Amino acid sequence: MTRTLVLVRHGQSEWNMKNLFTGWRDVELSAQGEAEAKAAGARLAERGFKFDIAFTSALKRAQNTCQHILDATGQSDLKTVRNQALNERDYGDLNGLNKDDARAKWGEEQVHVWRRSYDTPPPGGESLKDTGARVWPYYMHEMQPHVLRGGTVLVAAHGNSLRALIMALEGISGEDIVKLELATGVPMIYRLNADSTVASKEILSA
């Protein structure tokens, strides 16, 4: 009865590399991102991880990261559930813009508020609080039951959907969660107690 949840932010995408707001735009992993995803899988394989089910978003940068990890653990055909509830935060009018260009248009302070406040969305987009409103019920109803039955569950998703999930798991405040930086392609291993609280957390860095 392992009750293990492994969270991985997708490897670097082509738009991460270009400093663009990506959001729900469906862009590929960069060459570095492919390498990060494969390295994450190798580290998990070295530790003997075998998953019972995998969850990922509706976006291919997370899906491809998930597949690289499953390939590395010898589970290429594992059941994988894809759902937009795990998508990155929607940046609305900022999607596709260079972050420096956005600062030039709206001002550095305003763009910082949109990026790093908990409940202020950019025009036409979602706040982190909005992102959590779709992530939390999906976790509770679809993912957590597998973990609490003693399973080992892989989740390959995005910086903000994972922030929302970590916020719930660790009881982090909205003010503090926006400060949490998540590296691309680095597995975070949570062991849960039977009551769903976190027993331990390990970051599997290179």
UniProtKB/TrEMBL annotation:
Residues spanning the membrane: none
CDD domains: HP_PGM_like
Listed EC numbers: 5.4.2.11
Domain of life: Bacteria
Positions annotated to bind substrate: 9-16, 22-23, 61, 88-91, 99, 115-116, 159-160
GO biological process, one term: gluconeogenesis
GO molecular function annotations of the record: phosphoglycerate mutase activity
Enzyme kind, highest EC tier: isomerase
InterPro entries: His_Pase_superF_clade-1 (IPR013078), His_PPase_superfam (IPR029033), PG/BPGM_mutase_AS (IPR001345), Phosphogly_mut1 (IPR005952)
Catalytic activity: (2R)-2-phosphoglycerate = (2R)-3-phosphoglycerate
Key word tRNA-binding present: no
Keywords: Gluconeogenesis, Glycolysis, Isomerase
Site (Transition state stabilizer): 158
DNA-binding listed as a keyword: no
Pathway membership: Carbohydrate degradation; glycolysis; pyruvate from D-glyceraldehyde 3-phosphate: step 3/5
One family name in Pfam for this protein: His_Phos_1
Catalytic-site annotation from UniProt: 10, 88
Family annotation (HAMAP family): PGAM_GpmA (MF_01039)
Family from the record: Belongs to the phosphoglycerate mutase family. BPG-dependent PGAM subfamily.
Role description: Catalyzes the interconversion of 2-phosphoglycerate and 3-phosphoglycerate.
Subunit structure, interactors included: Homodimer.
Name of this chain's protein: 2,3-bisphosphoglycerate-dependent phosphoglycerate mutase
Lineage, uppermost ranks: Bacteria, Pseudomonadati, Pseudomonadota, Alphaproteobacteria, Hyphomicrobiales
